[in-house]
Specification:
The chain has helices at 8-22, 28-48, 53-67, 72-92, 97-111, 115-125, 133-146, 151-164, 169-181, 188-203. By secondary structure, the chain is mostly helical.
Length: 204
């Protein structure tokens, strides 16, 4: 990036790395600092290359990470931005799996908002379109279709079924977790996902 700060590949990939590695920092303050850097680089990538799908995706990831442990007002203010950036990424590249994963999480989080949070949404935005477990599941299934060897999509689909908690949803969650266990181990992330699947199945 120092040699070519306008290169969109350098910008969005570095933004994404900051978001991923930020999660492993030892304090919330340090994590937020990494996420802010990721968001800055993602925003810069979008400003210079507005038609680049991965730039919008990386920015959505960073803002989403910033919101995970934020207060209600910040979380709600960021919600509209995250959805917009993920949808823009999909519009630019419908075969990109990451934005569908983001929307899957987004719909589940919004579906789980409390009455107080929904009142804040009405006050700030006049309402917020979307936010259901059904939409969450559909987006995770799309991510699985596009990236079948990434177990995290299966795990999050299972979480959405479990949170919805309708008839047969627990079995649906088990089915997705069992499928995830059949994915070959190729990385440390795959090993961690396998352990998560095993722990969830044991609990179920």
């Amino acid at each position: 990036m120092k040699s070519d700060s306008s290169n969109v590949e350098y910008l969005w990939r570095t933004s994404y790395i900051y978001s991923i590695l930020g999660f492993g920092q030892s304090t919330e303050e340090a994590r937020q600092q990494w996420y802010r850097t990721g968001a800055y680089l993602g925003k810069k990538a979008i400003t210079q290359h507005p038609q680049h799908a991965n730039a919008h995706y990386a920015y959505a990831v960073a803002v989403g990470r910033m919101s995970e442990h934020a207060g209600n007002k910040t979380k709600i203010q960021n919600a509209k931005l995250i959805k917009s950036e993920a949808e823009t990424a999909i519009k630019l590249d419908p075969k990109l799996p990451g934005p569908y994963h983001i929307l899957g999480r987004w719909h589940r989080v919004v579906a789980g908002f409390s009455g107080f949070e929904r009142a804040m949404i009405r006050a700030i935005f006049g309402g917020l379109e979307g936010g259901s477990h059904e939409e969450s599941i559909l987006n995770f299934e799309k991510a699985i279709q596009l990236e079948p060897l990434n177990a995290i999509h299966y795990i999050e689909a299972a979480n959405s079924y479990l949170e919805r908690n309708k008839t047969n949803d627990k079995q649906q969650a088990k089915n997705w977790l069992q499928k995830a266990l059949n994915i070959p181990i190729r990385s440390t992330d795959d090993e961690m996902n396998k352990k998560t699947c095993e722990a969830m199945l044991k609990k179920l």
